[in-house]
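W.,

You were right to be curious about this one. When I first looked at the sequence I had no strong expectations either way, so I just let the prediction run and decided to look at it fresh. Below is the sequence, 411 residues in total, followed by the output.
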Amino acid sequence: MSRRVAVTGLGAISPCGNTAQDTWDGMLAGRSGIDLIERFDCSDWAVRIGGEVRGFDGKAILGARSVKRMDRFTQFAVVATDEAVADSGLEFPHSNPERVGVYIGTGIGGLEEILKGQEALANSGPRSVSPFFVPRLLTNLAGGTVAMRLGARGPNHCLSTACASATHALGEAYRAVVLGDCDVAIAGGSEAPMTPLGLAGFMVMKALSKRNDDPKRASRPFDLHRDGFVLGEGAGILVLEEMEHAKKRGARIYAEFLGYASTCDAHHLTAPGGGGAERCMRLALNSAGINPEAVGYLNAHGTSTPANDANETRAIKTVFGAHAYDLMVSSTKSVTGHLLGAAGGVEAMATVMAIHSGSIPPTATWETPDPECDLDVVPGDARQHRVDAAVSNSFGFGGTNASVVFGRLDT
């Protein structure tokens, strides 16, 4: 019999709040964390808004000595992991550390550290570059740092697949538990791209919303007047456990991790298309062993760009057929912005909580119908509705796609 996987712990840091509960409450209330950027001066730029993590002090939480070795994205990952582990009730060091894996994805990694290192080199020469420069910038050091703190000696992987990074990390962690490579997996993603270069890079691609005069409603997934995504930052971490391992210790189980799939469009560097999203959702449902009609909620990639939202809507219609119009489809990016490689972790948390709580987060900023995006996007307010199975989608540049399926535990 195949090993089953339980979700037993949740942790998150986002523009909506510095804990999973605060983030979830913000999503349900439609309370946007998007505002004018404060971390650096972009007052004369075409884009001046973003989803910043506010009130986060890594030194106060982790200690100055520890933070000296960590880029901001690693700090987010560590703090979100600490929350998820505490929420799960697991004790570390674990009695069998070789059976604990860590899978934390990021799209960019230590971008802030790269900028600091280059500035030091340019201004004062090579001896001024920090000896922690390389450890702070490497994408796999978030997972490596988490593993060292927990004493986790099982598989340790960093998935870097642009905006699908966290969802791929979750999916690969799920597979590792199913296949018996580990009994516990810490999985998700972290990202800290809120730097001048990070913002400028996406801005010159014309990917970002320019709604500077209305930041709280700038991210408008599936709305006719959407004009681009809003750059965000944060982390989302889930604790996954082999089902009997979780039950044996009396763990609270939020949901069952039912299935996962990954595909590539092989179509375009940045534009969606080629049928990869459709195939990914179909394969994920096949992996979960459920029919499309069993799904009650879908947390969409829903970036607020004209191309993504229309393509994702078409893909959902193709996969779910007539049931697509009975399906609740919302984008929590309406209040968090787009957390890039961390997005899938925070959105998986929201998907699990929708199943666990029976509350569906809205697409809070939706106002004007788009004929190309004509599904039930849960506009306005959160909705109370029992959900037995739910899907979370993440699609990234390079045509990479990931979908995960969660379900209410059948006791």
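Here's what jumped out at me. The chain has a mean pLDDT of 96. And, maybe more interesting for your project: The first strand starts at residue 5 and ends at 13.

Coffee later to discuss?

I.
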